[in-house]
C-alpha cells in the first residue's frame, strides 16, 4: 500500500511540474480595477507566472474548505467532549459506589466482585 501511495505522489509531482513548465508566462495581478484605482489613487499589482496563480487558487480553495469544515463540525466536537466528560463522571461515581459497597468486605472478595 505504501508503494502505491509513493507512486501516486510521484505521478502527481510529475503532472504538477509539467503544468508549471507549460504555464510560465507572466500575468499581471491587480488588487483594484483601473477605474477604482484612479479614483482612490492606490494601485497594487504584481507580475507572476500563470502556474503560481493556478496553484495558489488550489491552495486557497483547500484552506477555505478546511476552515469551513472545521467550523461546521464544531457541534460534533463539542458533543463528543460533553459525552467524554459525562463518561468520566459516571466512571468516577461507579468507582465510588463500588468502594462504598466493598467497604466491609474481605479484600479478596472485593477484587473478585470488581473483576466480574
Automatic annotation (TrEMBL):
Annotated Lipopolysaccharide assembly protein A domain residues: 23-94
One Pfam entry name: LapA_dom
GO cellular component, one term: plasma membrane
Claim: Transmembrane helix is one of the keywords in the record: yes
Coiled coil (UniProt feature): 80-107
InterPro entries reported for this sequence: LapA_dom
Chain ranges passing through the membrane: 46-71
Annotated keywords: Cell membrane, Coiled coil, Membrane, Transmembrane, Transmembrane helix
Protein name: Uncharacterized protein DUF1049
Amino acid at each position: 500500500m505504501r508503494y502505491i501511495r509513493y507512486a501516486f505522489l510521484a505521478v502527481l509531482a510529475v503532472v504538477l511540474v509539467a503544468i508549471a513548465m507549460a504555464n510560465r508566462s507572466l500575468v499581471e495581478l491587480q488588487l483594484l480595477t483601473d477605474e477604482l484605482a484612479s479614483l482612490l489613487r492606490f494601485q497594487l499589482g504584481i507580475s507572476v507566472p500563470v502556474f503560481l496563480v493556478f496553484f495558489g487558487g488550489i491552495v486557497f480553495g483547500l484552506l477555505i474548505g478546511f476552515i469551513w469544515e472545521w467550523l461546521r463540525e464544531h457541534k460534533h466536537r463539542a458533543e463528543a467532549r460533553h459525552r467524554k466528560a459525562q463518561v468520566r463522571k459516571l466512571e468516577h461515581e461507579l468507582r465510588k459506589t463500588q468502594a462504598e459497597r466493598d467497604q466491609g468486605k474481605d479484600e479478596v472478595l472485593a477484587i473478585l466482585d470488581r473483576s466480574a
